[in-house]
Design goal:
Helices cover 47% and strands 19% of the residues. The protein is an alpha+beta fold. Helix 2 packs across helix 3. The termini are far apart.
Amino acid sequence: MILKGRASRDTLVGEIMGDDVIMVPSALSVEASLVVMTDHYIRHLLIVDNDSVIGVVSIGDLIKDVIADQRTTIDALQSYIRG
């Protein structure tokens, strides 16, 4: 707000937010959702089904999921190696 010379008390959200709302279907994978977010430089993504918003995910939510999957894979590989 300050960089745009505006005071938060006197500015409506609609005056500063972007016009393009990025939405993806719930069937989209975590990895594909991360690509959408990265390509559009956004941190939150609306999830839709049948033209209805069913949720919002943050890039942090998706990264946590990726890390959990990687942890599971690492644990399985370590278990396999140990026999």
